[in-house]
Amino acid sequence: MENPSSSSSASVATSAAASASDADPGAPVREALASLARRYQHLLDRSTPFVRERWFGLFGLALLYLLRVWLIEGFYIVTYGLGIYSLGQLVAFLSPMVDPEIQELIDGSAPSLPTRSTDEFRPFVRRLPEFKFWHALARAFCIAFVMTFFSVFDVPVFWPILLFYFCVLFFVTMKRQVQHMIKYKYVPFSFGKQRYGGKRGSATEDVSLMKD
């Protein structure tokens, strides 16, 4: 026989949930969006170690976007905005976390990377890490690709002028960045740099200690 108290409590809970959903009709939507955000973040976390695969995927996405713009012959202003945004992200990727020029203005001393083997090891820390740089570009290309399906964003413009402006801006920005790198003696890439094996060094030290 069913307990009347349990049935009454269940009906009260059901009515309370119904009243809560009626009071806040946007709660299911927020829960669905939060679930999608957690799933998206989980996929991003899993893709972190696959550096080469991520950049190959971004290169394919960029080719797909450029192919669509070339075929439909439009959305040049969207492409120009995408190029300006990508250039800003590239500058942040090539810049150190602490700008030595600003540090020099503040206290008169700029932090520099080691130039001799006896100097203290100070790794290059980027203002924009590699994963965030890739994610920002991938998101920008996806947004720009979606924008090409809406004619409201297809603003008539003479595209050679935009291309000329972008080339000049890219040249001036990269020239300034290279001059900054030469002035403060830092290289934002690890290609060609000497690598040190921590395990091999520790094993050598253990052997030398045993001999002593």
Automatic annotation (TrEMBL):
Primary subcellular site in the record, as a coarse category: membrane
Biased composition (Low complexity): 1-23
Keyword list, A-Z: Membrane, Transmembrane, Transmembrane helix
Transmembrane annotation, as ranges: 55-71, 77-95, 133-151, 157-174
InterPro entries registered for this protein in UniProt: Rer1
Topology versus the membrane: Multi-pass membrane protein
Superkingdom field: Eukaryota
Localization, UniProt: Membrane
Keyword GTP-binding among record annotations: no
GO cellular component, one term: endoplasmic reticulum
Residues covered by region (Disordered): 1-26
GO BP: any one term: retrograde vesicle-mediated transport, Golgi to endoplasmic reticulum
Functional description taken from the UniProt entry: Involved in the retrieval of endoplasmic reticulum membrane proteins from the early Golgi compartment.
Family (UniProt): Belongs to the RER1 family.
UniProt cross-references to PANTHER family, sorted A to Z: PROTEIN RER1 (PTHR10743), PROTEIN RER1C (PTHR10743:SF28)
Protein name per its UniProtKB record: Protein RER1
Organism: Rhynchospora breviuscula
